[in-house]
Amino acid sequence: MTPSPALGVQTVFDRTEYRQEPVIIDEPGETAWAHHGVAIAPDGAIHTADASARHLVILRGETVERVPFPGTELHGLAVDHHGETWVADPGHKAERTAEGTYEGERLRGRVLRLRADGVVTAELLGSETWRPCDVALSDFGTRDDRVWVADGYGDSIVYAFDVDGTLLWKTDGEQTGKRFRQPHAIIVDSRSTTPTLLVADRANQRIVRLTLDGDFLGEFGRSALTSPSGFALDGDRLLVTELDGRIVAFGPDDEAIGSIGTPLRRTPEAWPNVLRDGAIERPRSVGVFRAPHGIAVTGEGDIIVTEWLIGGRITRLVPQPPA
Question: Does the N-terminal peptide bond of residue 283 adopt cis geometry, omega within 30 degrees of 0?
């Protein structure tokens, strides 16, 4: 595994040099605590959210579209072949108080399918206590019409539904020898001829591999990960965001092959933000990952990373041609 360089204007990741570019969606003075994901649509558009989670934000080149979101948080996203966005909404959004702290009401979690005009066209229902974190499709829903959901903030269960909302199966991970603890992300791994499911079992610091029917195939990442939070496929690499401050790449043999960033020392009263005069504020550091959350890779190979931060931060890592 290669060393973890600090993220800068240019950085080397798994033998590729990247230029860092900010993706500006929110105003500089935004005080909402962003907790959003990111996904790439079949047409190449980037689907993400503003820090307040009031809008699904769709980026097409220089064009920015804002679709009103009738929920609480756009935490995990997937886009289907119709261009509709599946949203895992855990039902919680931290709001800033007059004292500078952040508190939020906890509502029932939902998984919604959102049309480009903001109309909800489907809803998946779990238990009264579920708080879904992520949703996955197979090749934008063209290869398999099932929808997989990771309930990371509620019951720590992985679900499979059909597109009409019928529950097909669920698993708490007991078959792996250890129950899931905060399954935070899920993705269909299509790098082999037989697709599988990958689950970021964050509190257990591992990645679990399942069949598409929920059977246990194996696990990996324990020696390389501390806080796996998001997934993206980049050719034959699997990219994993670590909430502690970095991105780790795994090769097709499930071995860690590179990383960007350095794990941060957490300060419980403020992390990943900072404490100033008794109030929690956005960090001023530039060029260093604080809390990588969502991740996606464009058709051009750009890596898009969202962070769990006050005000939100989205970074584009653009691969540079060899010198």
Answer: no
